[in-house]
Request: fold
Amino acid sequence: MADETLTLSLDSGGDVVIKLRPDLAPGHVERIVENAKEGFYDGVVFHRVIPGFMAQGGDPTGTGMGGHPNKPDLKAEFSREPHVRGVCSMARAANPNSANSQFFICFDDATFLDGQYTVWGEVTSGMEHVDALPKGEPPKTPGKILKATVS
Reply:
């Protein structure tokens, strides 16, 4: 089946391969795939990287305040899928239906997020490259997605 994985090629020299989960969040997966195919994530930084918690990216402004300028926010697709190491989920504002293009990858178990954020994927390889991202809010020199591809 097409569009089953998202690969993030990071400037740290490695690829992060993410298994997409349309069974959990079809609308969010569709948006991630669209964004990747448009090149939207290419060159975007991880602007919030908190050790022991998560790495957040997907904001074209690099500030944590932006999203896709031409696409509406998504309706929440919460599931029972636990937020554990390697899980990919959508970032959002206080409004549960405010996810747009920003996402995060969990470094460790963050089950306090369960049922409140939309899980859309899981890292199947390259988690060491996520672990190696520069830390900070924002990092002094943020790690960058060189290219996002779907296969």
